[in-house]
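User:
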Amino acid sequence: MPRIRLNRSRNHATATAGSANATETAIAGATATAVSTTPTTPTTLTAPTQVSPPNGTVFNNYPRTTTLQWSGVTGAATYSVEIDYYDNGNTTCTGGKPLKTATGISGTSYTFDFIGAQPGCWRVWAVDASNQPGTKSNWSEFSYSR
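Assistant: Predicted structure:
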């Protein structure tokens, strides 16, 4: 609640609320009301939860058509997905080579063809209606054996 000080000789009220200040002049005999306008801090969207494929999945199929799925995030307008590929034997999801970044995905899944019999990693994030990206998920690893 803002503090209001009234200077009776001038019928002037000043309200202070946090970093917002409001000043109103009172008409003789009237009540002055101060309304504080506090700037809102943008809310960062949470990271989606990766659903499929589970971390560490090994596929043995060709063609290497892969569908990624994740949970929806409240406030998301679209989603973006980043996919990297790695040399055989690397299952740490570090130092990968970018395969693709897909943006503007309206649902909670994305299907693509992976490039080889090797490991890959993916992560996903929500994007709000103002095109502000949310928190990225952790990397999740998968691989193809053929």
